Amino acid sequence: SNSNVAFIGLGQMGARMVENLIKNGQKPRVYDIIPAAASTIQGATPCSSPEEAVDGADIIITMLPNGQIVKDTVSRILKAVPKNAILCDSSTTGPQVARELSKVAKDSNIRFLDTPVSGGVVGAQAGTLCFMVGGSQKDCQEAEPVLLKMGKKVLYCGESGAGQITKLCNNLILGVTMIGTCEAMNLGVKLGLDPKLLTDVVNVSTGRSWSSDTYNPVPGVMENVPASKNYEGGFSVELIAKDLGLASDAALSINAPIPLAAMSHQLFRTLMTYHLGKKDFGVVYKFLEGQALK
Ligand code: NAD
Predict the structure, then answer these.
(1) Locate the 6-phosphogluconate dehydrogenase NADP-binding domain: which residues (predicted)?
(2) Mutation test of ligand 1: which of 33, 39, 64, 130 has the most ligand atoms closer than 8 Å to its C-beta?
(3) Could you tell me the distance, in angstroms and rounded to a whole number, from the CA of residue 188 to the centre of ligand 1?
(4) How many C-beta neighbours within 10 Å does residue 294 have?
(5) Distance spanning both ends of the chain, measured CA to CA
(6) Each residue of 28-41: b (16+ CB within 10 Å) or e?
(7) Whose alpha carbon is nearest atom 29 of ligand 1?
(8) Are 84 and 111 a contacting pair, CB within 8 Å?
(9) 3: which DSSP letter?
(10) DSSP of 156-179
(11) How does pLDDT run across 117-136, given as a tens digit for each residue?
(12) Residue 1 pLDDT > 80, yes or no?
């Protein structure tokens, strides 16, 4: 497609997503609050403000830390965004923020989609992200060719906020399952099992999950996962805690009980008080093991 793309937020995820846009023939205008994040991307047009980045854009993608920053950014660029452009927020912000932004955008004749992603940093790098989209289905179809330059799937989930709800439900399962896997692995190891053997059995049995077979939290069981790199460079405890907090807010709004998610949220928050917030969320294993942490 010949869309003019702007991209705001060039962190762990955003920088890699932009690189895939470039590989696939786009020349995006990019902005990050840290100037070096924009100027070091070969093949992009670095901009010194978000307003400058959105100049002439048909599609604007934001990949920012949280909902407040996305809201501040959107209110700042609102006047500069060309009418009828599509604003895709791929940050994980929750359905409330998505619905608010959808309304704010509409009042300025801008189209808004919530387009959070799964696949993590690895998926962002490989261009295999899965986009979960909320908003108008027609707008989703229009944004799809650009999103597919950064991902392998664009899944339309429903009206505004539905992409965010889908993302939170997925991450609820992810957070709870990771903790369950860590608990079981620690129990088995403490009872004398070899963690590789236990993993092999679980992975052909009913306890299998992404946390056991793709992202095993026990150091040395798998290569090239954060657990085997001192829990560096993965999906941080802070981010899963944020997502479980958003899931709690959403659950409270309709009185849905989420007992295991609530407990998981609190466990990840506890890890943050032990200065493990920046570590990969598989570090729960180390925490339960009770060895010295650093
Ligand atoms: P990150 O902190 O690495 O990147 C955020 C970037 O935004 C940083 O480069 C920062 O400088 C920039 N930024 C902050 N404030 C800004 C502002 N006002 N204007 C412009 N730029 C600003 O975070 P990330 O890991 O890339 O995650 C981004 C979003 O994607 C989060 O909402 C996260 O929950 C979600 N997400 C992350 C992962 C993951 O595995 N890391 C996976 C799926 C979704």
Answers:
(1) 4-158
(2) 64
(3) 36
(4) 8
(5) 48
(6) bbbbbeeeebbeeb
(7) 91
(8) yes
(9) -
(10) EEESTTHHHHHHHHHHHHHHHHHH
(11) 999 888 999 999 999 999 99
(12) no
Q: Best mutation site among 20, 63, 70, 172 for ligand 1, i.e. most ligand atoms within 8 A of its Cβ?
A: 63
**Which residue's alpha carbon is at the smallest distance from atom 17 of ligand 1?**
33
Question: What is the atom index within ligand 1 of the atom nearest the CA of 34?
Answer: 11
The enclosing H or E element of 133 equals: strand 129-134
Name all residues whose Cβ lies below 6 A of ligand 1: 8-14, 31-34, 37, 63-66, 69, 73, 91-92, 117, 120-121, 235, 239
Would you state the structure tokens that stand for residue 222, as one six-digit string?
A: 């798998």
Residue 277 class from Cβ within 10 Å (0-12 exposed, 13-18 middle, 19+ buried)? middle
ipTM for the predicted complex comes to 0.99
The dihedral built from the CA positions of residue 222, 224, 225 and 230, taken in this order, carries a sign that is positive
What residues does 155 pair with on adjacent strands?
132
Note the pTM of the prediction, 2 decimals: 0.95
Domains, the chain, ranges and CATH? 5-158 (3.40.50.720), 165-289 (1.10.1040.10)
| Catalytic residue ranges | 167
